[in-house]
Specification:
Layout lengths: L1 E4 L3 E7 L16 E5 L1 H11 L4 E7 L3 H12 L3 E7 L6 E7 L5 E6 L21 E4 L5 H13 L3 E5 L8 H4 L4 E5 H10 L8 H12 L2 E5 L5 E5 L2 E5 L13 H14 L4 H14 L13 H7 L7 E4 L2
Parallel strand pairs: 1-4, 1-8, 2-6, 4-5, 8-9, 9-10, 10-11
Antiparallel strand pairs: 2-3, 6-7, 11-12, 12-13, 13-14
Helix pairs in contact: 1-7, 5-6, 7-8, 8-9
């Protein structure tokens, strides 16, 4: 089982011709509201990839929370670890998407601020399960959860998004770190590492320094990963047209976690995650276009095998 500890939001999605300048109002004829939040997104992506998923989070006593709960249950995500806040509303994100498919996001944390590590019973923190975290909760909750999970032999994955400070001690409890290029450079700077211009070398530096497997996502250029002195380069699947990039990174993380849970080799996990993330940009919203396991299996042959690189 994959245990996702993370945010649960409702996304308010607005399509705009272009993003507004500061102080400017841009009109759009309509908006949509749909479930989101990095935690919930990644939980649903993992569930659609064919594994059992449990969500740990917090919602408000409101219509947004009800909709989020119902969505997770329809997708087969276990929600017994989702609690309801007495005084805060369900988290909410405002997402603007322009004509090129790029997005801008502002998020209100809401009830996500009240998620506690005590919501996780010890019996699910086992070596057979995988822990998946992001950075839309209070950071201290993540570090407590990581420590508990690691001490019980659970495999742990952190998607350091949105970018935030990662304490050195937290790295001791982490098996897989997933970051984009900007986040990778920020971590390297804080750790006193030299900033490499080559993404694979940067991943190698972080992997060696932190004692973990480092994956750097590169948007439409795919991803790179380093485990010890072994590196892999994985391309992205070409998709036309790009409708909305919201949630593509969450799809990548959720599917990657599902593959790690199923004991797949790292290059195969990366290929499947890359295919899924690429496919997810074909529709509006974070969850709408997330592929199911059959879609991933059918499309996988279109992506070349990962390139293996021996590093020193």
């Amino acid at each position: 089982m994959i245990v996702v500890v993370g945010s649960i939001n409702i996304d308010l999605l607005m399509q705009v011709k272009r993003f507004p300048e500061p102080g400017e109002t841009v009109l759009t004829p309509a908006y949509e509201w749909m479930p989101g939040g990095k935690g919930m997104n990644q939980a649903i992506a993992a569930a659609r990839a064919g594994v059992k998923v449990a969500m740990i989070g917090c919602i408000g006593d409101d219509g947004f929370g009800t909709r989020a709960q119902n969505t997770m249950r329809r997708e087969g995500v276990l929600t017994s670890g989702v609690v309801q806040s007495d005084d805060l509303p369900t988290g909410c994100a405002m997402i603007m998407v322009d004509e090129s498919g790029e997005n801008q996001v502002v998020m209100s944390q809401g009830a996500n601020a009240q998620v506690s590590s005590e919501q996780l019973p010890d019996e699910i923190l086992t070596p057979a399960n995988v822990m998946l975290l992001q950075m839309e909760l209070e950071p201290e909750v993540n570090w407590l959860v990581l420590k508990r999970a690691s001490e019980r032999g659970m495999r742990t994955i952190l998607n350091l998004a949105p970018a935030a400070e990662l304490p050195r001690e937290a790295l001791e409890y982490l098996d897989y770190l997933i970051v984009n290029r900007i986040e990778a450079e920020q971590i390297a700077t804080k750790l006193g590492l030299s900033i490499e211009t080559d993404a694979l070398k940067l991943a190698h530096a972080l992997s060696k320094s932190c004692g973990l497997t480092c994956i750097i996502t590169l948007s439409g250029r795919g991803s790179v990963a380093v485990e010890g002195d072994l590196g892999w380069i994985v391309p992205a699947l070409r998709v036309e047209p790009v409708v909305d990039t919201t949630g593509s990174g969450d799809t990548f993380c959720g599917v990657f976690a599902a593959c790690i849970h199923n004991r797949m080799a790292l290059p195969e996990a990366l290929r499947r995650a890359s295919v899924a993330g690429s496919m997810s940009v074909r529709g509006k919203g974070a969850q709408t276009a997330m592929p199911y396991i059959d879609d991933i299996n059918a499309t996988l042959p279109q992506l070349p095998e990962a390139d293996h690189v021996q590093l020193k």
